[in-house]
Specification:
Chain A: It catalyses: Li(+)(out) + H(+)(in) = Li(+)(in) + H(+)(out); Na(+)(in) + H(+)(out) = Na(+)(out) + H(+)(in); Li(+)(in) + Na(+)(out) = Li(+)(out) + Na(+)(in). The structure holds 2 protein chains of 2 kinds. Chain A is mainly alpha-helical. Chain A is built from 34 helices and no strands. Helices cover 71% and strands 0% of the residues of chain A. The chains are: A mainly alpha, B mainly alpha. At the A-B interface, helix 9, helix 13, helix 17, helix 21 and helix 22 of A face helix 2, helix 4, helix 7, helix 8 and helix 10 of B.
Chain lengths: 823, 246
């Protein structure tokens, strides 16, 4: 039992008490689960329950009947009706068990570093199954095909499809298809054919096994399983190319498996196979795969189109994504098309558009739900595999099982090596021997094979149990032996690993540059290759599809700008999460500031010192986030609302002058307080390097900094000077809204820009402080005082929008923010 | 090999092949293309490339064309630009995009990597002073975004600044405020792009078969030689078809 496993493993730094407690909890839950399951799953007991309940009611009924005239029956204060809640209760228990197991393994880090989680989960499943059996109950048919294909599999596949790295996938699509289609066909026929040959040998007692069932078995067993591959490959952090090759193969071979399965199942009843059937099979394959993709793409586009209009119902946005995807899967399954391919296509098609349309929070929700569902499903699948193994029935045949395992290995190796030999002739980047080894070795089998085997008709296939046993053995072999040894092997062979670092803006720029460059070179060479068509498609996408599917102005945004925005946003969030500007986690060792890269030249005339237009909107956003984070009081939920998370009165009161005014005053007060507060801690690390966040277009920031660093380390917070005398005026001038004031605009510029430019360690205090400095600077530059005020006012005006942006920074908000700045 | 008829004799080919690593067939095809572009002249001018219709919507068209006339890319130690190039120079520039061989030692890989990155670096470093200054970098980003109108122009600056800041912080580490980061040197350039596997990415497929008759000047469906690419195209046309349907 897992408890014992846990005991044996030396668990890291946890105290003994903690461990003991954990074990106790796990034990209790296990026991509870098993007992109730046992009770629930046994028909006898439930029947007894039933009759018991019936009896009880009968007695009561008779009681009531006899005393009909003068007494009321006693009101049942507490009654037990387990049967009523049995199914959902058991489902919850299983899910709970799965989640607790996952939790448990992550509490014992050393164990999970040796054994893959999938293996542990199977072991847990075996134990649970064993306990159920020990309790003398019948093990429930947990890995039922319907349950598996309709509930457990879709979340995993959708997760995979949604987060599919499109670029490497499309770049290697040829190789992936080759492995998925030709490789799987080869495996199926090789394994099936040779198995049949082995079965014909005298003395194996298998002569009753015919050719078609053998081929059917081969087609079931030959497909690489996405669930198993994901579970193992996620842990070994292999490089992107190999990951996508194996994983892509496991996804795309579904169509082949589906067709082969139905084909052989059909003919093992009929007996004869004519050449005509082969042709039909090929056509069927095309329909199944392309049809699946088409169904998925249609639903994906529908989802994207729907998300275009959800800006007013942000809370249910994520639901659309899930429901459309599930519909795609079900629709595909309805026609026996490849549901997996439909889900993949749906997820991949809708992602870019949906991401642009839905709010930031909804997107986070989508991501979390996908991850949650898929990880729970995965855990359940592995546990169920274990339980199903115990459940039996088994028909163990040494010859059949061992030959299956060996043949699978051999055919996989031959298939991969042979296909790579052909593929390498066409690939620009060749696959090395190491790569081939990992691709071959990573061909894990999993629960899909088992479920397909489970689906077989007992009457048509008398050897079904033997097949199931062989399938389970093969799954166990691949998951345990290959899954456990692949990690050391990867280390041993020094196969390139995945880089963990996130993409930098430079890489993004050069990726784009390279794309255009290669397209250009291809055009000069005069032949249309990969890049040419990709470029065409991109342009088509930008020109028509994005326009249809993306709301607002976002569709015009080129990829690079979108990336930049995302990056800035992420940094702002990081800054906020790191504690409101105490210090950034040193992810970005920023020791350099904008001033260091600015050419030193004379300060340009004041008029030219305007900010780049675009950053203003962004600055606003970042500022907003910072501000609201610092002032938790303002983030309070004002009133309960079922349809929005943060009910902000300003959300709708855009034109409400009074509210705005009130808010403006509040803001002013808060700003002053905040700056005062913040500047004090900001003073301590007052090294020149820390004083950054200079404007790109502001060369004399340099001098400014120097001046301040020469002085005493305490800061001359000059907050009040630009603000306090004017704050009254400002309200009077309120009606002049809409003007972009240079004063605050630039001040904000200092803040926003500082954040945006990877100012790792810049505290908020510093930003603010520099903001103040900037204002001071402005004063020195003899700006007309009114400008600063207007700027302030602008800041105030923006504020409602800013709170809104926090609650849901959707595209529409951005439009509102960006609008005034657009030329 | 059909392209050979209209071409100069073998020895010259052998020379070119040794110099650039292209096969005879590839040289033949590229020569044919060269003639086509230069209107059967011996030299190619900027205008010849400017008139390629497909190139006209490429945002970095000018840089690409400039690269062909940049002496630094000719494997000689020259500098500056030329007005017209011969076939040999054309071929040398093209050879920067040759895919790497299957079996490479680490050193060879590194050499190829440096060569390819040097080509990219030269495209950015327009004034040839060994560094990419902020101005030059801004120009690059501006060109990249030149298709997106006014919005792009404004943003380009911000992006270039952010990128430059990133380079400075990666390559210099700590800097005093009065220090000045001159620009991206080649070493820094190597450093910031170390995660992009340039040796496996900066290459295109040069055909071994003459397909110029398939794609006369503009439109055609070329290069059915390779299976992988064929499937690519099949998929892409499916996508097109799918989009067309909707």
């Amino acid at each position: 039992m897992s408890v014992r496993v846990a005991l044996h493993s030396p668990s890291g730094s946890r105290s003994f008490l903690e461990r003991g407690l954990l074990l106790l909890v796990m034990l209790i839950f296990l026991e509870g689960t098993v007992l109730t399951l046992g009770a629930a799953s046994s028909p006898d007991i439930s029947a007894q329950d039933n009759t018991g309940g019936h009896d009880h009611r009968g007695i009561e009924g008779s009681h009531v009947h006899t005393n009909y005239t003068y007494t009321k029956k006693a009101f049942p204060v507490l009654s037990l009706d387990y049967h009523h809640i049995q199914v959902p209760f058991e489902i919850s228990l299983w899910v709970l068990l799965a989640s607790l197991m996952k939790l448990g393994f992550h509490l014992i880090p050393r164990l999970s570093s040796i054994v893959p989680e999938s293996c542990l989960l199977i072991v847990v499943g075996l134990l649970v199954g064993g306990l159920i059996k020990l309790a003398g109950e019948e093990v429930p048919p947990v890995l039922d095909s319907n349950l598996f294909f309709l509930c457990l599999l879709p979340p995993i596949i959708l997760d995979a499809g949604y987060f599919l790295p499109i670029r490497p996938f499309m770049e290697n699509i040829g190789t992936i298809l080759m492995f998925a289609v030709v490789g799987t066909l080869w495996n199926a026929f090789f394994v099936g054919g040779l198995l049949y040959a082995v079965c014909q040998i005298e003395g194996t007692y298998l002569s009753q096994v015919e050719l078609l069932p053998c081929l059917l078995f081969g087609s079931i067993i030959s497909a690489v399983d996405p669930v198993a591959v994901l579970a193992v490959f996620e842990e070994i952090h292999i490089n992107e190319l190999l990951h996508i090759l194996v994983f892509g193969e496991s996804l795309l071979n579904d169509a082949v498996t589906v067709v082969l399965y139905h084909l052989f199942e059909e003919y093992s009843g009929a007996g004869e196979v004519t050449p005509m059937d082969v042709v039909l099979g090929v056509i069927c394959f095309l329909i199944v795969s392309l049809g699946g993709i088409a169904v998925g793409a249609i639903y994906g586009i529908l989802a994207a189109f729907t998300s275009r209009f959800t800006s007013h119902t942000r809370v249910i946005e994520p639901l659309f994504m899930f429901v459309y995807s599930y519909m795609a899967y079900l629709s595909a399954e309805m026609f026996h098309l490849s549901g997996i391919m439909a889900l993949i296509a749906c997820g991949a098609v809708m992602r870019p558009y949906v991401e642009a349309n839905i709010s930031h929070k909804s997107h986070t929700t989508v991501k979390y739900f996908l991850k949650m569902w898929s990880s729970v499903s995965e855990t359940l699948i592995f546990i169920f595999l274990g339980v199903a193994t115990v459940a039996g029935p088994h028909a163990w045949n040494w010859t059949f099982v061992s030959v299956t395992v060996i043949l699978c290995l051999v055919s996989r190796v031959i298939g991969v090596v042979g296909l790579t030999f052909i593929i390498n002739k066409f690939r620009i980047v060749k696959l090395t021997t190491k790569d081939q080894f990992i691709v071959a070795y990573g061909g894990l089998r999993g629960a899909i094979a088992f479920s397909l085997g489970y689906l077989l008709d007992k009457d048509l296939f008398p050897m079904r149990t033997m097949f199931l046993t062989a399938i389970i053995t093969e799954i166990f072999f691949t998951v345990f032996v290959q899954g456990m040894t692949i990690k050391p092997l990867v280390d041993l062979l020094a196969v390139k690993k995945k880089q963990e670092a996130k993409r930098s803006i430079n890489e993004e720029i050069h990726t784009q540059f390279l794309d255009h460059l290669l397209t250009g070179i291809e055009d000069i060479c005069g032949h249309y290759g990969h890049h040419h068509w990709k470029d065409k498609l991109n342009r088509f996408n930008k020109k028509y599809i994005k326009k249809c599917l993306i709301a607002g102005e976002r569709y015009k945004e080129p990829q690079l700008i979108a990336f930049y925005h995302k990056m800035e946003f992420k940094q702002a969030i990081e800054l906020v999460e790191s504690g409101g500007g105490v210090k950034l986690p040193s992810a970005m060792p920023s020791q350099v500031s904008m001033q260091n890269i600015q050419p030193k030249k004379l300060p340009p005339p004041v008029a030219e010192r305007a900010l780049p237009q675009f950053t203003k909107g962004r600055e606003e956003e970042i500022r907003k986030i910072l501000r609201s984070n610092l002032q938790k009081t303002r983030q309070r939920l004002r009133s309960y609302n079922r349809h929005t998370l943060v009910a902000d009165p300003f959300e709708d009161g855009w034109n409400d002058f009074l509210l705005k005014k009130q808010r403006l005053i509040e803001l002013e007060k808060k700003m002053t307080e905040m700056s005062n507060y913040l500047t004090v801690p900001g003073a301590i690390p007052d090294s020149p390097t820390m004083c950054r966040a200079r404007l790109a277009s502001d060369p004399n920031a340099f001098y400014n900094i120097k001046a301040s660093s020469d002085g005493v380390p305490t800061i001359q917070v000059d907050l009040a000077s630009p603000q306090s005398p004017d704050s009254v005026n400002m309200l009077n001038e309120f009606s002049k809204e809409g003007h972009t004031g240079q004063g605050l605009g630039q001040r904000e510029g200092a803040t926003g820009q500082g954040l945006g430019q990877r100012e790792g360690a810049t505290g908020l205090g510093l930003c603010q402080r520099e903001g103040a400095d900037r204002d001071e600077d402005q004063g020195l530059m003899m700006k007309p005082p009114g400008k600063g005020e207007k700027g302030e006012e602008e800041g105030g005006n923006k504020n409602p929008g800013l709170m809104r942006c926090l609650s849901d920074p959707g595209p529409s908000n951005e439009d509102e923010e960006d609008e005034p700045f657009l030329p | 090999m059909g392209a050979l008829q209209s071409l100069p004799d073998e020895p010259e080919y052998r020379d070119l092949s040794e110099k650039t690593g292209f096969s005879f067939e590839q040289i033949g095809i590229l020569h044919k293309r060269f003639k086509q572009l230069s209107h059967n002249e011996d030299t190619l001018r900027r205008d010849d490339l400017n008139t390629i219709p497909d190139l006209s919507c490429n945002p970095i068209r000018t840089q690409i064309i400039e690269a062909f006339f940049d002496k630094r890319n000719f494997h000689q130690n020259g500098e500056g630009t030329v007005q017209e190039i011969s076939f040999e120079e054309f071929l040398v520039v093209m050879s920067h995009f040759r895919p790497p061989a299957l079996d490479m030692t680490e050193e060879q890989r590194e050499i190829i990597r440096r060569e390819k990155l040097r080509f990219l670096f030269n495209m950015h470093d327009t004034d040839n002073d060994g560094t990419i200054t902020l101005e030059e970098y801004r120009h690059v980003v501006e060109e990249l975004l030149s298709r997106s109108g006014a919005l792009g122009k404004e943003t380009a600056k911000g992006i270039a600044d952010a990128a430059m800041l990133e380079v400075a912080s990666i390559s210099m580490g700590h800097m005093e405020p009065d220090e000045f980061y001159e620009g991206i040197t080649f070493e820094h350039f190597l450093k910031i792009l170390k995660d992009i596997e340039i040796e496996t990415r900066m290459n295109i497929r040069f055909l071994n078969m003459d397909t110029t008759n398939l794609c006369k000047v503009n439109r055609a469906y070329p290069d059915c030689t390779s299976l992988t690419k064929y499937t690519d195209k099949l998929l892409e046309s499916c996508l097109w078809f799918g989009f067309g349907l909707l």
